[in-house]
Specification:
With about 100 residues, the protein is an all-alpha fold. It contains 4 helices and no strands. It is elongated and about 50 Å long.
Length: about 100
Amino acid sequence: MPQDLPELKRSSNSLKNPLFRFLDRENSVLCKLLQTVKKDFLLCYEVCTAERKSTNYIKSILENLHADVVPPHWKKYIVPPTTTASNWLLDFKSRVE
């Protein structure tokens, strides 16, 4: 996955375009979600390598991922309720790319 998503270039003309505003909002949500997912995986990694003590937040992420369930705070866009965490991550990766 890319390190960071590029921001869309804003101009007075582009801000008048409803499609641009829609894509700009979606890009913003995706950037924030990417940062959250990266942070959560880093926290889980640090717990697994004994660099950090576990917290209830990290335990809930690990339990969800172990059960192949998408953590609730990652659900920023609609997916079928039967979507597994592994399938969600593949879909998220393709959206980011």
